[in-house]
Specification:
By secondary structure, the protein is α/β, with parallel strands linked by helices. Helix content is 43%, strand content 16%. The chain has a 5-stranded antiparallel beta sheet with strand order 1-5-6-8-7. It has a 5-stranded parallel beta sheet with strand order 14-15-18-13-19. A hairpin with a 6-residue loop joins strand 16 and strand 17. Helix 22 packs across helix 23. The chain starts with 15 loop residues before the first strand and ends with a helix.
């Protein structure tokens, strides 16, 4: 079974393109930027500037330059480089998301060029593509881009004079974030020429991460890492030790502000013995964050013991936590230690801690306070040295108010809370996670999968992931198993449920491109056409809301007036859609 070819009615929208000048010295022809300029809207009455549906701000480059200089002077060049590169990465990944919407009906080449054009439109640099080749389905990418008038280079020359290394950190992060999001796999760019070093212009080369030699990419990889890890190095094919790829932390991967913030909090608390409470929805990776916290701690060489409190029957939870003596109850044919004893000297991870019964909560509180336990059916008190890490997807503050959870236990567990954001708020992480899970499961299952079709990449970006990262991981593993060797993953391999597949396809137009949500696509469609499309009522409602907000320049009160509803009703529907 092979992936379907793009519909014949849309010959330009394929998964591959090649951009190269016909002769030396000739510039590559690129599409105009009028469609991008049209998305820029000023709303001075309420102090807002919009690009598409995102609020932006004008800032003096001298102010940004001052921040850059202070970062270098106070935190050092390496730390400054990391922060600024990640800032650029976030901008680039966000612009890739915008590109899919603005040019969803254009060729893949025009879609890709949104990145360089937006980079230029932002005023940071004039990006001139020299050569770009991409095949989304096979994961092939090669880019060669010249930068003119780089903000980073200008600022560095003014502040420090000539440099002995490339300094265009924000721009480099932008190119990495945009291309990784566009391709659906980790792509790294390296600055091979820099005006701050005396070169006539700045120039970058981009390739997939695994195509770089270790000695060429090590510095770029280190710059994008949020933390310095302990014992997490690996050996490259040439025998040289390198840092883990991307912004990885143990088994965690990401580059979004939410991910980086969580990683920094992990580093702050890792070397202490403080109790940590991970909060977040099901599937965000609380268990993996907990295991990584243990690996970063001084207890890394001691046991890590986990217990899912929701999976143990209430009448057995005490025995699981504290152990049991032989003969304590029918069926207790031998003595055995509980999780506290097994974790002695190490870490005890209590997942779904909000599911504990009141009786278990009382005994857990005593164990945490006094650092001692008693087995069921025993009178001997045993001292335990255990670091507690807990996790919950429930609002424990509300559970306390409802009388389901002890307030004093919450105080004990909530010493250092860490909120892990859902995947829908970390869309910059999606390309990194796609690449990570594809590599993991092709190796695990011995499959030869070339990558993702452009339709699959679009779908993975648009999906809301109610099951978060765990759901994404399952989608990709299932797709790896289903797809034929030598073929890319298509949307039908990801969403096997007819209901899910139909839901995703509703966001795609008949040509296989993302459905635009403004102008003619909503405002100019008559009721007969809408009914004929068989769209769900909520999708029609969302289209009307989006168009009303566009016409009102984002003013909620004016948009509500256009729709003939109260502002509170409109605000409720917008908030509900975003959840």
């Amino acid at each position: 079974m092979t992936a379907p070819n793009p519909p014949p009615s849309d010959p330009d929208r394929q998964h591959t393109f090649r951009l190269i000048p016909a002769s030396a010295g000739e510039r590559v022809a690129t599409p105009g930027i009028d469609d991008l300029i049209d998305c820029l809207r000023f709303s001075p009455r309420d102090g807002r500037i919009w690009f598409d549906n995102d609020r932006i701000a004008l800032i003096h480059l001298s102010s940004l330059g001052s921040i850059r200089q202070q970062l270098i002077d106070k935190a050092g060049p390496e730390a400054a480089r990391g922060l600024l590169t990640r800032m650029g990465y976030t901008m680039g990944a966000k612009d890739a998301e915008i590109a899919r919407k603005l040019r969803s009906r254009n060729s893949l080449l025009d879609l890709f060029l949104v990145g360089p054009q937006l980079h230029t439109l932002r005023g940071l640099v004039l990006a001139e593509p020299v050569q770009v080749e991409a095949d989304v389905a096979t994961g092939h990418f090669y880019g060669d881009v010249i930068w003119h008038g780089s903000f980073d280079a200008d600022n560095h020359l003014a502040a420090y004079g000539k440099s002995d290394h490339p300094v265009c950190w924000i721009q480099l992060g932008y190119a990495t974030g945009y291309t990784s999001a566009f391709m659906g796999l980790a792509v790294r760019w390296k600055e091979v020429e820099c005006r701050a070093m005396g070169d006539p212009h700045c120039r970058i080369i981009g390739k997939p991460l695994d195509q770089w030699a270790a000695d060429e990419i090590e510095q770029e990889v280190r710059a994008l890492q949020p933390l310095s890890l302990h014992g997490q190095n690996s050996t490259a094919a040439n025998g040289r030790e390198v840092k883990p790829p991307l912004t990885s932390l143990g088994d965690l991967v990401g580059a979004s502000p939410g991910f980086v913030s969580t990683c920094h909090m992990l580093q702050k608390v890792a070397r202490t013995t403080a109790t940590v409470l991970f909060r977040g929805a099901t599937g965000v990776g609380k268990g993996r964050f907990a295991r990584t916290l243990h690996q970063l701690s001084a207890r890394a060489d001691q046991p890590f013991v986990a217990l899912n409190c929701a999976a143990i029957p209430e009448n057995l939870i005490e025995a699981e936590l504290f152990g049991v003596e032989k003969g304590a109850y029918t069926g207790a044919i031998r003595s055995r230690p509980g999780r506290f004893e097994r974790a002695h000297g190490g870490t005890l991870f209590l997942d779904e801690v909000g599911m504990l019964s009141k009786a278990a909560q009382i005994k857990l509180l005593r164990a945490i306070q006094q650092r001692e336990i008693e087995r069921v059916g025993d009178s001997i008190t045993r001292r335990v040295d255990v670091r507690i890490i807990a996790a919950t997807n429930e609002d424990l503050d509300q559970a306390v108010k409802a009388g389901r959870f002890r307030e004093d236990l919450l105080y004990r567990l909530n010493v250092f809370p860490i909120q892990i954001p859902p995947l829908r708020e970390r869309r910059e992480d999606i390309p990194l996670l796609m690449s990570h899970f594809l590599r993991r499961y092709t190796e695990l299952h011995g499959r030869d999968v070339t990558g993702f079709t452009s339709l699959a990449v679009d779908a993975l970006y648009e999906y809301d992931y109610p099951g978060n990262i765990r759901e994404m991981e399952n989608l990709i593993e299932r797709a790896v198993i289903q797809v034929e060797d030598g073929q890319p993953i298509d949307i039908r391999h990801l969403f096997v449920s007819e209901e899910l597949l139909e839901s995703m396809l509703l966001k795609l137009n008949p040509l296989g491109s993302l459905q635009q949500e403004s102008k003619a696509d909503t405002a100019d469609t008559c009721f007969d056409d809408v009914i004929g499309l068989g769209l769900p009522l909520e999708e029609v409602e969302y289209g009307l809301i989006t168009e009303a907000l566009r016409r009102a320049d984002g003013n909620m009160t004016q948009a509500a007036r256009l729709l003939g509803v109260k502002r509170s009703h409109l605000a409720y529907r917008v908030k509900k859609r975003q959840q």
